[in-house]
Design goal:
alpha/beta; Rossmann fold; 3 domains; 4-stranded antiparallel sheet; 13 helices; 19 strands; binds 2-acetamido-2-deoxy-beta-D-glucopyranose; glucosyltransferase activity; transferase; glycosyltransferase
Length: 503
């Protein structure tokens, strides 16, 4: 038996043991198998994601949604393929504690006609069994969808992303030939600036992501923290792809490395990911502590201010450093360093402070996904989705200098129902727009729109190296799609970004 298979069996076993340990919570009503709702991308054959997922909303016999957990083990999910004896699929049912469940599964092989059974006390729920017809490819199967439009339709990608439109509106066209000359000259041979070409099937960028035929495209990625293009839009600007944008720069933003990895490595990642956080949102709103909470390191002046404020007003704010790195540690001012707190424990608190670090705080997607309310510092830095976030709808805004932080916490304490409403709207935002399918759509759209602006051919430049695709030797699969000539996986993994640059 291979090590990987063994590890996988072990995991399956552990998950099962874990489930048996937990007993169901008390329900305020009883779910009905017929009325319960089931939906999501994981019920469709052609939405290939590293971990596929779908949702279950418990509904009672009178048609009311349950709003508290009917118990972790209420629903049982089984997956079988009629043509296989044993399906190697790792399934997790995550209780979101609000009457809904997130079911994620990872396939280790490709199956034909996958049957998904969702059971409530041995009764089929909603339209269960859900049948995914035809070959259901696992993530490791090298079987790209040759047609971009078909892939977009399969993934239900939105028509547009306003941030992409904003970023690209600054360019009437992009000239790969000119950029290839000018960008390295202007920004130097920085370690953090990588030059990519995706062309024909000679150049690959390896990832663990969904794959689709991408247009030929040539671009520069900034792996550093800070955005680079500081020129005014009226001057001659260069397109640079960055994880983070700012009010004073013109970089083209893409989903952060952290969020991307959290989507790609989901179920393989021990640390935080956008799905497991949904199952670990702590006690219910009423049970949460109403002291505002923050932990982190000293990467910005305002963070120092925050910790000082917390020491002055401990009944309002519990903020402390877990690490000192940038500033000199003065224990009399900032207190002792405290032990690292599991991110899931953040959600024991109602009010979460989101404050810039070196650049935008990349924890915001995870904070939003919880059921606490986010107090977000006004910031010149932004990630790819901030443009869609609305103050007072998805979060409570606080001034860049934190001058109104105490006042805003007091507001939240005095307006508990409104604060809860904002918390839930923020959570809904994360559920709708920050999951794997959305992130893939964003990348695809970005490259597609960018490629359209190119006025010269993308080329493989001197010094560029080919990145080899991994092959899945353990569970080979046969691809039934017509293979395209241009086969490229999304260039999403940081190690790949580093592999393929001008040296
Ligand atoms: C019940 O939950 C589903 C799924 O989240 C949602 O679409 C629907 O609007 C909810 N129904 C009510 C009455 O709140
Ligand atoms: C709430 O949290 C604060 C700060 O962590 C702590 O001092 C306080 O005892 C907690 N309150 C309750 C009721 O647990
Ligand atoms: C950055 O720009 C946004 C959008 O124009 C604005 O709301 C925000 O106040 C600005 N923040 C800072 C700190 O410059």
């Amino acid at each position: 038996m291979s090590l990987r298979l063994f590890a996988w069996l072990l995991l399956l076993f552990c998950v099962d043991l874990f489930r048996h340990e937990l007993t169901g919570a008390h329900a305020d009503s009883v779910p009905s198998a017929a009325k319960t709702l089931v939906w999501g991308p994981g019920l469709e054959t052609n939405v290939v994601l590293p971990a596929r997922f779908f949702y279950v909303q418990a509904v009672d016999s009178s048609g009311r949604n349950l709003t508290t957990s009917p118990g972790e083990k209420t629903f049982e999910v089984k997956m079988v393929s009629p043509v296989e004896q044993f399906t190697r699929i790792w399934i997790q049912v995550l209780d979101r504690k609000d009457g809904s469940f997130l079911v994620r599964y990872r396939m280790y092989a490709t199956y034909t006609d996958l049957h998904i059974h969702i059971l409530l006390k041995n009764k089929h729920v909603a339209k269960s069994p859900f049948i995914l017809k035809g070959p259901v490819y696992h993530e490791g199967c090298d079987c790209p969808q040759p047609s971009g439009p078909v892939w977009e339709a399969d993934m239900h990608c939105p028509q547009t992303f306003s941030q992409i439109e904003r970023d690209l509106a600054l360019y009437a066209s992009v000239d790969p030939d000119r950029n290839a000359q000018e960008i390295p000259q202007r920004f130097g041979q920085r370690q953090s600036l990588c030059h990519y070409t995706v062309q024909d099937n000679k150049v690959y960028v390896r990832t663990f992501g969904e794959h689709v035929q991408l247009p030929d495209v040539e671009f520069f990625v900034n792996l550093g923290d800070w955005p680079l293009e500081k020129r005014k839009p009226t001057e001659k600007i260069h397109p640079i792809f960055s994880w983070c944008g700012s009010n004073n720069t013109r970089d083209i933003v893409m989903p952060t490395y952290d969020l991307t990895e959290s989507v790609l490595e989901t179920m393989g990642r021990v640390s935080l990911d956008m799905m497991s956080v949904q199952a670990n949102t702590g006690p219910s709103w009423q049970e949460k502590n109403s002291t505002a909470f923050w932990r982190g390191r000293d990467s910005r002046q305002e963070r120092l201010e925050l910790v000082k404020l917390s020491r002055a007003q401990p009944n309002m704010i519990d903020a402390a450093f877990t690490n000192f790195f940038f500033f000199k540690h003065d224990e009399s001012l900032y207190g002792p360093l405290v032990k690292h707190v599991s991110f899931f424990d953040f959600f024991k608190y109602k009010y979460q402070i989101n404050i810039d670090g070196t650049v935008a705080a990349y924890r915001l997607p995870y904070l939003l996904a919880g059921d606490s309310v986010v107090l977000k510092q006004d910031s010149g830095y932004y990630e790819h989705f901030y443009n869609e976030l609305r103050p007072w709808e998805h979060y409570i805004p606080i001034r860049a200098d934190l001058g109104d932080l105490l006042e805003k916490i007091q507001w939240a304490r005095d307006h508990d129902e409104e604060a809860l409403k904002i918390a839930l709207a923020g959570q809904q935002f994360a559920r709708n727009y920050l999951m794997g399918d959305s992130i893939f759509c964003y990348y695809y759209k970005l490259f597609q729109e960018y490629a359209k602006l190119q006025v010269t051919e993308p080329k493989i430049r001197e010094g560029m190296e080919l990145v080899e695709q991994p092959s899945d030797d353990l569970f080979p699969c046969s691809c039934h799609r017509t293979k395209a000539r241009h086969i490229v996986k999304f260039p999403l993994h940081q190690s790949d970004f580093v592999l393929f640059h001008l040296t």
